[in-house]
Design goal:
heterodimer, A: alpha/beta, Aconitase, domain 4, seven-stranded mixed β-sheet, 7 helices, 30% helix, B: 424 residues, alpha/beta, Aconitase, domain 3, five-stranded parallel β-sheet, 18 strands, 3-isopropylmalate dehydratase activity (chain A)
Amino acid sequence: MLLKGKVFKFGDNIDTDAIIPARYLNDSDPENLRKHCMEDADPSFASNVNKGDFIAAGVNFGCGSSREHAPIAIKASGVPLVIAKSFARIFYRNSFNIGLLILEADTDSIDSGDILEVDSDKGEIKNITKNITINAKPIPKFMSELVSAGGLMEHARKRVKEGF
Amino acid sequence: MTNPLTITEKIILAHTNLNSVSPGDIVNARVDIALGNDITAPIAIKEFDTIGVCDVFDREKIALIPDHFVPNKDIASAKQAKMLREFAKKYDIKYYFESGEVGVEHALLPEQGIVLPGDLVIGADSHTCTYGALGAFSTGVGSTDLAYAMAFGEIWLKIPYSIKVIFDGEPNKWVSGKDLILFLIGKIGVEGANYMALEFSGSTFKHLTMADRFSISNMAIEAGAKSGIFEPDEITEEYVSKRAKRDYIIYKSDPDAEYIKTLKYDTTKINPQVAFPHLPENSIDITEASAKNIKIDQSVIGSCTNGRIEDLRIAASILKGKKIAKYTRLMVIPATPEIYLMAEKEGLIDIFMNAGGVVSTPTCGPCLGGYMGILADGEKAISSTNRNFKGRMGDITSEVYLANPAVCAASAITGKISSPDEVA
């Protein structure tokens, strides 16, 4: 998939409380979660983010809780891709399960406002603003198959229909 | 003949149709218990309804525990709890607990003998890793995973590499499982075990209780770990045998099993720890923490990490006959109704209330900033819970310091972060 967008850059250890604070977890409607996405890391994120923009971050993005509300809030914000140096385990699997694209790459050269062109199949990240190309770690085969199957729920529905 | 395996590899292997597994393999595994709570299960239930199955895979292998915002904190929370109740009714889910019988999930399920050694447990809650204390493989997953598991009884898992963590020696006074895990996270960092299984062993654990092991396994996730497991021994057997609702299997690691690394610590050199805002890895010795003269507004004793009877007993032993500092709040939250009743019978509730504390019904409550003790701007809390992220317990400018229940009790008395030795 080819994607082009503007970056919102965050630091290390962005936890799930920063992505979607627990005070909003009495609701799981994506539209309501979107309004508070990244609120405790950048209160202006929800009003400034546009469809197609990217999130970039340092190490251990999505650490903390298992709340799927976190990748759901990001996806509902129109962000198709998160690039980070590393992801916390549960956030990683949740993103694949719900079809939010995530790439592991050295994000040091990426700053807020940079325009990136990303070829997610090749894992190639072109920073148009800085004229630098960085490569993401390849996505494990199982995970890319899960994404191309439409996520875990699509796989589940197919399993019921086809009886495997 | 298969390769030598760790306890983690053995348990996962036993839940597949494979002949062998190695770290890095992605496998489909059968689950013994699939768990959800009032925050995560609503999404799972909505997803489950789209799959097209006419029943859950096994009504006796699903646990729905409304503990986070229950007793309902507001209308929206009440609607989420209602979704669990309706789903439990519709599919006759065996392990659904109503207010009055519900407790904090990771204290409740082991106490009721619902999760057992050798089990493979997945839960849509990151602290599902708690059951590693029993010698089970248990890990936190998302709501979509829970929906899938409720339908098919299966989960996709990557076999984790294991890190062996050895604590040797008798613990110092006031040192509990909480201190050992805070100490470890301080050493390896919040990402130090990402994607990996922590396997705990060493002579220290003969001196500690199951409650200490639960605290340790519970916070494995705070080092990024997939799980935090102990090999069952006579302490485990003693805890489990009187509670188990079904048969269970004891697994142990092969002596020549492979570990990605081995970490060894001398417990006799470890003092109670306090993890400073805003990461659990910011842990320092209590003497150093106390010297910083940090005034606190609230002390919280409870949660899936430290809301067990042993935690309440030690806190009460410090608070007995004392009053908490003026303008300071103490929240005590027994993790389950059984713990609450034991505390009542043992006179602990009297001690907490006479000291000026609030005793709440079991709930996760303030731990995740839900309710029952939310912090205002600039306020500081010392807490026996598991996370001190920015804004975790309330306003974004508030601060949470993590510690064991003894330190939380002592700090409530002095109104500042203090060692239990300072008030004893």
